[in-house]
Amino acid sequence: MLSGAEFPVAPLPPKKNSCWRTGRSGAAEDDLGARLGCSFARLPYTTTTAKMEVLLGITGKDFTIIAASKAAMRGATVLKASDDKTRQLNKHTLMAFSGEAGDTVQFAEYIQANAQLYSMRNETDLSPSAISHFVRGELASSLRSRKPYNVNLLLGGVDPITLKPALYWMDYLASMAPVPYAAHGYAQYYCLSILDKHHHPDITLGQGIKILNLCTDELKRRMPIDFKGMLVKAVTKDGVIDIEFDDDKVVKSA
């Protein structure tokens, strides 16, 4: 005879005034929900526009590089060619974002405000690890709400106490992983193999920029998308610095 712990557990029936997902389009579900007196939860998804945005991150001996494409796009249309997809959370932490246009800026500025509020209240900055866990918690809470944020993130920095670099990969489903290098969007398909080949933990900042150049050259060679170059920033023990990056280099086609 099975014990209570071994009995198979059946899924709970839907609560009153809630509906199972039907697989129909959003408008069709809204119409059906109105007739049934219920509503359907909206799950986030990765759009093609979000995938066309490039985010890259590289850690080294005593630094973390964060790079983001400058193009702000809506479908196939470039709305802005000098968009800054990063926010400085404190002196030693930087976050880059991609995803739905409204969600990205609203969520990034919400995280930035909370990190700075903590610094003012406690007269000390949160470490990159602490902020990443806070961000992951906010994404997890959002995912279980009616209107979840559709945001992918790279959070990098240098721990102000240990002076060790850190980089965290997070996506819209509230997954989080500490990584030595990372990419979001279609850049993953072209750049991760390059990073895997050339990266090692003790690279200098100059070597990190060279690896980043290899990645952007490959993107220009392979992707049929003009992402308007890269905005590059590095986090060191002295804070966040802007890196001058050559966006005008002509790459020979494959």
From TrEMBL:
One of its GO terms (cellular component) is cytoplasm. PROSITE patterns: PROTEASOME_BETA_1, PROTEASOME_BETA_2. It is found in: Cytoplasm; Nucleus. It holds the Pfam family Proteasome. Keywords: Cytoplasm, Nucleus, Proteasome. InterPro entries: Proteasome_alpha, Proteasome_beta2, Proteasome_bsu_CS, Proteasome_sua/b, Proteasome_suB-type. One of its GO terms (biological process) is proteasomal protein catabolic process. CDD domains: proteasome_beta_type_2. Component of the proteasome complex. Component of the proteasome, a multicatalytic proteinase complex which is characterized by its ability to cleave peptides with Arg, Phe, Tyr, Leu, and Glu adjacent to the leaving group at neutral or slightly basic pH. The proteasome has an ATP-dependent proteolytic activity. Belongs to the peptidase T1B family. PANTHER family: PROTEASOME SUBUNIT ALPHA/BETA (PTHR11599). This is Proteasome subunit beta. The lineage of its organism: Eukaryota, Fungi, Dikarya, Ascomycota, Pezizomycotina.
